[in-house]
Amino acid sequence: MNVFISYSHADKKWADALRSGLTEEGFEVTVPGDDIEPGENWHLEIGKALDRANAMVVLLSPDSVASQSNRAELEYALFSPQFRHRLIPVLVKPTADFPWILRKQPFIRATKDVNETVRRVAEALNKSPVPAGR
């Protein structure tokens, strides 16, 4: 399964920790800030990465909910059948401005135990089958 991690640059440590842990669990993981080279068309490359992905992990924090880029990635996932039942919100820093569309959806609260958080994300990803042909 190819997992796209949507995050704010302020939450890069969490994105890196999740990438490392999920990779060890056998997932292919895209972290846009690491996977796009300087000079490349950022928006085009993000679009390609989203098209390749089967699942999205959204890291939620005050910085990410204020980011237009994160909002656009989340909207893409919400309206793309390929992410149905494979959109995993992870609250990495408390925020009162939680995206309205995710308020009723179960989410994972990150804990100080990064390995436990990775385990819970991997478990959530494994619960939903990848659609045929992906």
Give the secondary structure arrangement, pairings included.
Elements: E1 2-6, H1 12-24, E2 28-30, H2 32-35, H3 42-52, E3 55-60, H4 62-66, H5 68-78, E4 87-91, E5 108-109, H6 114-127
In short:
With 134 residues, this protein is of the alpha/beta class. The chain has helices at residues 12-24, 32-35, 42-52, 62-66, 68-78, 114-127, and strands spanning 2-6, 28-30, 55-60, 87-91, 108-109.
- Uncertain runs are none
Question: In the CATH hierarchy, what is the class?
Answer: Alpha Beta
CATH superfamily: Toll/interleukin-1 receptor homology (TIR) domain
Measured between the Cα atoms of the first and last residue, the distance is 8 Å
The sequence of SSEs as H and E is EHEHHEHHEEH
How many strands in all? 5
Coarse shape:
globular
How big a fraction of the residues is strand?
Answer: 15-25%
Number of alpha- plus pi-helical segments? 6
Which structural class matches the secondary elements? Answer: alpha/beta
- Largest beta sheet: strand ordering: 2-1-3-4-5
Q: At the third CATH level, what is the topology name?
A: Rossmann fold
Helix content: 40-55%
CATH architecture grouping: 3-Layer(aba) Sandwich
Number of domains: 1
Mean pLDDT: 88
CA-based gyration radius: 14 Å
Sheet bearing the most strands, described?
Answer: 5 strands, parallel
